[in-house]
Here is the input.
Amino acid sequence: MSIAGAEFVRPVPVDPQALALCAVGVHKSFRERESGEHQWRRVDAVSGIDLAVPRGEILGILGPNGSGKSTLIRILATLLVPDRGSVEVFGYDIGRHRLLVRRLINRVSVEASFFKKLTAEENLAYATGLYGVPNRQAQAMAREILERLGMPAKKLRVPLEQLSRGQQQKVAIARALLTSPTLMLLDEPTTGLDPKSRREVQQFILDVRQRHDATIVICTHDMDEAERLCDRVAIINRGRFEAVGPPQELKARHGATMEAVFFTLIGESTAEER
Amino acid sequence: MFWFYNVINTLTIGLIGFSMPAGPARNRMVLYLAIGALLWNFLSILFQEVSTSVQWERWEGTIEYSFMAPIRRVTYLGGVCAWAVLYGLVRTVVILIAVAFFFHINLAGADLAGAAMVLVASSVPFIGLGLVAAVLPLLSTERGAQATQVIQGVLLLVSGVYYPVRVLPEWIRWAAVLSPATYTLDAVRKALLSGASVTSLFGVSLGLLASGVVLIPLGLGIFTLAERHAMRTGSLKRNG
Ligand SMILES: Nc1ncnc2c1ncn2[C@@H]1O[C@H](COP(=O)(O)OP(=O)(O)O)[C@@H](O)[C@H]1O
Ligand SMILES: [Mg+2]
Here is the structure.
């Protein structure tokens, strides 16, 4: 048994042999009604996903809009209860050991959700306070992380609504990292960033795996990003994995470039919003 | 300033009493109204604050992050409630000072200790009611806050904030019996207007505490159920 988790968040005993993430037969459907419609429709957002992620891996989930990436991430992040199937994080079932699992994970979403009128410092104080991280340490760590992400420290003191989308996303990444998660769930962290910021964030993700011994699941619809960052990539379409493997292997089997792989597996016509 | 409106509102309501001819009856009326305004101010903060913060977190989308934190829901809600009590007390004291300064109120015959006891006891059921109301914005971002205001409006109507509940029409008077605010207002007025002693207000305070002991677990229970519902239907998400 070794101790994983943060210096400040109460550590969780973790079996070093355990998979960082193990999901079996996960299903989730929603009821949806378009405005004006009377009938509810069932949307199968995730339909039968199996997943085994060893510790230290960066797994990419590549898929078109509406393919179920965010739903899957929310299930892994204990925010959604799956209709069927089971998920374990470092051997802990996410339903039965919800609070333990929550100490091991954190999530960054596409939308950097903050109290927009408050400053980054205030937002970070609130968020890390919920995890029991002492504020002084949190602020010092935040300054260091944001510096590595190429963001000046004085930006921490202005209301978040005055920061650019890229800067907000960097603060969101800092917020997640401050709780030293052993499993990071990143849902399109670079969508909408300019090329320079995207590079910085990507480099940072590689850095985090190195320095913090973190396991990372990252959703994206950016082919280059998937290839550059990920040890393995899962191609998701209509709530199912079409293929999972290292980028090299996928390319050897399904096409010359990741883009070719993507279109071979998903089909040109379906690779758009449902 | 932030509280300007609250101070002015309380003073305005107190001024209504000045439409009576001068004398002890007028002083009593002004105090009667001011107590109503002050207490309503305090109780509505307790009632609203949890609901408001859930609403705010939903609006900004931070609620998914707060709910993902490894913290028991009781602890999270306890923190919000503690903040509400502190905020409510400070704001009420500020308004109280303004009122006392403006109206030169004479509290010679009042029993302040009794009033304070009732006030403390009444915050318990109001926190419970606030937890129940906080479920509404958890279920619906848009309509939740409106529903909370409807409940608050009903409480304002039936609890005798600015008039004795006996002036209410017959068909709604029964509702006054159910509102903890009715007993709070009545008891605080007895203490401040008629000098009712701590011992004579013991029963009411105990009753208020007892209703809180029922309402708080009820509120927590309903909140937990609503959270579970949201985790099944995916209603917490704002976008993405
Ligand atoms: N909370 C929800 N309520 C109803 N439908 C949802 C909800 N979340 C996702 N969906 C639906 O599930 C499908 C998958 O969505 P999502 O997981 O967000 O896809 P992605 O992140 O890959 O773009 C979409 O059709 C979407 O409309
Ligand atoms: Mg998404």
About this structure: Chain B touches chain A through 24 residues (CB under 8 Å). The radius of gyration of chain B is 19 Å. The longest helix of chain B spans residues 24-60.
